[in-house]
Specification:
The protein is an alpha+beta fold. It has three helices and three strands, in the order H-H-E-H-E-E. The chain has a three-stranded antiparallel β-sheet, with helices on one face. It starts with 5 loop residues before the first helix and ends with a strand.
């Protein structure tokens, strides 16, 4: 009986979680992208609406074999472009007062 390559299962799951290699138009509502979408909707207030416009996992500093040899964790840097929409409190029809957009470094995802 052949022993399956167990690391491949973990790597495939990790790629699916990050949706590595997908463009902004190809993102599905799963994994990390889904978590950011849910946060954006749940943290909205009458005055502000945070919204993540793109999620871009970077490239790992080392490949899996190098990480094993060096004894370090395989991880990729994670950057999120966030848009904050600020509404005018005095307006009765929720008029947009300001929109700020910035790319934010969120850390490393192991």
């Amino acid at each position: 009986m052949d022993v399956p390559y167990l690391l491949a299962i973990q790597l495939d799951s990790y790629r699916e979680f990050l949706q590595a290699g997908a463009s902004k138009d190809q993102f599905r509502d799963v994994g990390l992208h889904a978590a950011f979408n849910r946060y954006s909707r749940s943290s909205a207030t009458p005055a502000m609406l945070p919204w993540s416009t793109s999620l871009s996992p970077g490239r790992a500093g080392f490949d899996v074999k190098e990480c094993v040899l060096r004894g370090v964790t395989f991880a990729v840097p994670l950057r999120v472009k966030v848009r904050l929409i600020i509404f005018d409190k005095e307006s009765s029809n929720k008029a947009i007062k300001d929109i700020k957009e910035q790319e934010v470094y969120m850390g490393e995802s192991p």
